[in-house]
């Protein structure tokens, strides 16, 4: 919780210059090259990558057809056997496209990806806790924690 507050404080201290991003004209070719690589990385027969849509939206890709097609493919595959991390990426991709992740229209009807994310996260935490209780100690991000059964 401290990071977002600190980020917002820095954002306000920096002023509006921090909000805009201007690429010098002499380096614009680099951005164009990255956009082209992103567009070329989209494979029609492969699972859509929400990270690509996020990047294209952040780069303000002038070719509106590419993000729209990718967005539709992301909507069509929403919540199909995903981990919480994958669902979170889908939520971010939809939000970056000004879409509501709570009302995703898929081929199977409407899906609320925020609810799916909450359920998947809860399931993964419960699974982690179950495994943690079976072990004498648990290693989490470099910190050894005693499990509840050994306390």
Automatic annotation (TrEMBL):
Q: Report keywords, A-Z.
A: Cobalt, Cobalt transport, Ion transport, Secreted, Signal, Transport
Extract the signal peptide range.
Answer: 1-20
Q: Which is a Gene Ontology cellular component entry for this protein? A: extracellular space
Q: What subcellular compartments does it reside in?
A: Secreted
User: Which GO terms label this protein's molecular function in UniProt?
Assistant: cobalamin binding
- Please cite one Gene Ontology biological process associated with this protein: cobalamin transport
Gene3D superfamilies tied to this protein: 1.50.10.20
Q: Which family does it belong to?
A: Belongs to the eukaryotic cobalamin transport proteins family.
Name by which UniProt lists this protein = Uncharacterized protein
Q: Which organism is it from?
A: Phrynocephalus forsythii
